[in-house]
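S.,

As promised, the FE2/S2 (inorganic) cluster run. Input:
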Amino acid sequence: MMTGIPQPAFYIFKCQQSAPPGMPKPSCVSQHNPESAQLFQHLAQTLMQKGIIATVQPIQTSCLNRCQQGPVMLVEPGHTMYVGLTKEKIDRIIDEHIIGGNIVSEYVIPEQVWGEPIAPSAMVR
Ligand code: FES
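Predicted complex:
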């Protein structure tokens, strides 16, 4: 029997959007928050150090449309949006959610800015 290459257990989409200097709009990578430029590397390095990078895929994305809550990242499966990220928060998310299986609810986006999705079938023209 042929054995396939196992699919990843998680994808982590980290918003890497930065606004040009002087732009008033908030962004996930910002000159006003020096740590924000290091978060993707911290995420990838920590996954590597823990030996789980093969089954957890960090992905750099552009804007995920929750800029006010940035820096943000989305964990799939589960559709879990984490906001206001720091290195420390990323460490806890890896240990408790990705390895431990428990969502870190303190860092999850507030419900009022993350309502239920609208089914595409309800919107299609
Ligand atoms: S810039 Fe990251 S969500 Fe928009």
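Helices lie at 39-49, 87-99, 120-123. The first helix runs from residue 39 to 49.

- D.
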